[in-house]
């Protein structure tokens, strides 16, 4: 019998829905406070006189994305609605999600989860200046392939094949592209690696640059809602890597081919660099004259871009366009430029005047500015309505806020950040300002740079079973074998515990959140967390007597239940006890009773105690623990005999 023709037909392959793009329109870095008066919404900041978000939406149009969610703080909702009016016809669905009282990308993601707006896989663009010149087809296909192979492959981070100026580090499995090592929160060029990472085929890469783009499953969004202290996608990555044995999730890295180019801005230096790259048409076909749906730009020789509005551009000599004194320049409407001015790799806002013999290199200048004669400006950001007097040499890496009349007496201050009025220090708690020469000089309270973000740190390669001062060791550890990040974590945990102990309402939930936040900031492992949480606990003043320790353990049961669920974590708790035993003589006699008490209160299991006891090197401690070990072994034997008798019956 011949089978029906339907038997030979292939099943219709289920088509996967296109990724939804989640675009965060705000930047939450306080270094951008000087520009917020003109551009409260970071996505509207002009790159080549084109709002940065327009470049993002332009390249998204060339991908499979049909639905866009533009996420913005409630204060900037009007700006997002204006973007929607210009771009809603380019996509099937364009949604503005306004979130009140958000201060981070993490807050935005939690709001999306609370509103149940994330229903499947999505593309997260956490920075509204992210640009790329490819349609991402192979990268999205690889993400979907990994998801089909294993649903626990929850995220793929997109990197460009370009050496980054900050020399940040990654550890990647060279066979699977699985991310194994990720930099610390407080140091982009610091990794903490162990021997086994190198046996598992991990490549340490410093030749890759993040694009600010990530392909994510819905589980990534829920990670934000489960951890209220997470501020960005990097926090989620660190959590997944540090709890690999618990969460079982994997993060992968996808590197763009060398022909594809991508970039995003995260400080003023990278903003100026992005402006220059865009002027040089580095991301073609993503170019200024094609990225704005409501304004018209012309591209001229030497990469001179003119925003056209009738005859609003005023050039005193048409031959200036063809001269060799100026190239890679974007000019807004009604801009007046002297034919003797020299401008290179810069963006000039509308209604701005630049007088003769002035030189402007690698800078962004706002609207309605007046630049006098014989001025020199390089690697600077200048806001709107700024006046630069004749003969002024603006210092490199200067940031000049709106409405400032630049005082020449301040020209010698490096990395100057100058504002027209005092900062609101309640709103910008990390910043301060002081009055000088009729203006206000702004600074970070911790002394950091406005112009570029800090990447201080060093690579740490921990060496197992070797002393920290051994030849060839690059662990960066002190003589006590504790590296700086672990020591910092311990000190922060102790401080948090002290505050909790002194408070009237000792909320363990708040203490756990603070400890988790310190863990992320210091980028320590779960082993370090388990050991140092209890080490810090033992140092509290209430623990001078055994009774006080027991009472506090009962009171803080939720804390121990959170961190000591597994045998491995319990062993590290006991290692902290062992360290305390060796360091403090008065503590030694309390150890057996303390271990027994924690066993009776279900904080420690017998397997963890027995395994730790076998590893004890201190003879006196091993001897004092022997009674408990014998008792546990006897109890285990009795349980086995009872099981055998029940089986025989």
From TrEMBL:
Record's subunit section: Component of the translation initiation factor 2B (eIF2B) complex which is a heterodecamer of two sets of five different subunits: alpha, beta, gamma, delta and epsilon. Subunits alpha, beta and delta comprise a regulatory subcomplex and subunits epsilon and gamma comprise a catalytic subcomplex. Within the complex, the hexameric regulatory complex resides at the center, with the two heterodimeric catalytic subcomplexes bound on opposite sides.
Chief location bin: cytoplasm
Cellular component, GO annotation: eukaryotic translation initiation factor 2B complex
Keyword entries, A-Z: Cytoplasm, Initiation factor, Protein biosynthesis
Family: Belongs to the eIF-2B gamma/epsilon subunits family.
Source taxon at top rank: Eukaryota
Record protein name field: Translation initiation factor eIF2B subunit epsilon
Organism whose genome encodes this protein: Caenorhabditis nigoni
MF terms in GO: guanyl-nucleotide exchange factor activity; translation initiation factor activity; translation initiation factor binding
Location within or outside the cell: Cytoplasm, Cytosol
Cytoplasm is among the record's keywords: yes
W2 domain mapped to chain residues: 483-642
Entry-linked Pfam families: LbH_EIF2B (PF25084), W2 (PF02020)
Entry keyword annotation includes Cytoplasm: yes
Matches recorded under SUPFAM superfamilies: ARM repeat, Nucleotide-diphospho-sugar transferases, Trimeric LpxA-like enzymes
Region spans: Disordered: 462-483
């Amino acid at each position: 019998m011949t089978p029906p023709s339907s038997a030979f037909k292939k099943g219709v392959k289920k088509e996967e829905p296109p990724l939804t793009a989640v675009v965060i329109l705000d930047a939450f870095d306080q270094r951008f406070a000087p520009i917020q008066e003109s551009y409260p919404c970071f996505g509207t900041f002009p790159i080549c006189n084109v709002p940065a978000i327009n470049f993002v939406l332009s390249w998204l149009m060339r991908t499979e994305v049909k639905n866009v969610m533009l996420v913005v703080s409630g204060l900037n909702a009007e700006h997002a609605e204006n973007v929607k009016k210009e771009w809603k016809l380019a996509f099937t669905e364009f949604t503005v999600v306004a979130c009140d009282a958000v201060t981070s990308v993490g807050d935005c993601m939690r709001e999306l989860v609370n509103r149940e707006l994330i229903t499947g896989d999505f593309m997260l663009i956490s920075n509204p200046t992210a640009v790329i010149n490819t349609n991402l087809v192979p990268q999205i296909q690889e993400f979907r392939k990994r998801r089909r192979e294993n649903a626990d492959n929850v995220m793929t981070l997109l990197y460009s094949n370009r050496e980054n100026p900050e020399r940040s580090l990654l550890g990647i499995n060279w066979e699977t592209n699985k991310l194994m090592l990720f930099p610390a929160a407080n140091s982009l060029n610091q990794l903490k690696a162990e021997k086994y990472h190198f046996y598992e085929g991990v490549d340490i890469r410093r030749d890759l640059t993040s694009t600010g783009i990530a392909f994510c499953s819905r589980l990534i969004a829920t990670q934000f809602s489960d951890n209220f202290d997470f501020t960005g996608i990097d926090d989620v990555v660190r959590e997944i890597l540090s709890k690999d044995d618990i969460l079982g999730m994997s993060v992968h890295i996808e590197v763009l081919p060398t022909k594809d180019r991508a970039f995003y801005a995260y400080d003023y230096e990278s903003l100026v660099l992005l402006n220059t790259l865009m002027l040089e048409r580095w991301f073609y076909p993503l170019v200024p004259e094609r990225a704005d749906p409501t304004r018209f730009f012309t591209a001229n020789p030497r990469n001179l871009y003119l925003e056209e509005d009738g005859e609003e551009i005023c050039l005193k000599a048409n031959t200036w366009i063809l001269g060799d004194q100026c190239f890679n320049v974007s000019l807004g409407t009604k801009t007046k430029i002297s034919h003797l001015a020299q401008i290179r790799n810069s963006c000039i806002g509308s209604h701005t005047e630049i007088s003769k013999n002035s030189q402007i290199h690698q800078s962004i200048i706002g609207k309605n500015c007046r630049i006098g004669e014989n001025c020199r400006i390089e690697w600077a950001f200048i806001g709107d309505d700024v006046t630069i007097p004749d003969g002024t040499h603006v210092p490199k890496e200067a940031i000049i806020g709106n409405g400032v009349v630049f005082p020449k007496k301040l020209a010698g201050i490096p990395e100057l950040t100058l504002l027209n009025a005092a900062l609101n220090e309640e709103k910008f708690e990390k910043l301060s300002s002081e009055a000088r020469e009729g203006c206000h000089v702004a600074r970070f309270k911790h002394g950091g740079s406005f112009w570029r973000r800090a990447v201080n740190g060093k690579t740490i390669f921990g060496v197992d079973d070797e002393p920290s001062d051994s030849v060839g060791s690059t662990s960066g550890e002190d003589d006590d074998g504790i590296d700086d990040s672990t020591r910092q974590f311990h000190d922060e945990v102790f401080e948090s515990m002290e505050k909790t102990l002194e408070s009237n309402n000792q909320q363990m939930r708040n203490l756990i959140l603070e400890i988790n936040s310190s863990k992320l900031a210091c980028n320590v492992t779960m082993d370090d967390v388990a050991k140092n949480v209890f080490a810090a606990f033992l140092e509290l003043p209430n623990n001078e007597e055994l009774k006080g320790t027991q009472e506090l353990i009962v009171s803080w049961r939720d804390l121990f239940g959170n961190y000591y669920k597994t045998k491995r974590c319990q062993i590290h708790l006991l290692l902290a006890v062992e360290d305390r035993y060796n360091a403090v003589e008065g503590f030694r006699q309390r150890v057996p009773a303390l271990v027994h008490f924690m066993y009776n209160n279900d904080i420690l299991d017998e397997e963890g105690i027995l395994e730790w006891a076998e590893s004890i090197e201190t003879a006196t401690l091993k001897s004092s623990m022997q009674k408990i070990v014998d008792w546990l072994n006897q109890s285990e034997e009795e349980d086995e005999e009872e099981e055998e008798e029940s089986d025989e019956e």
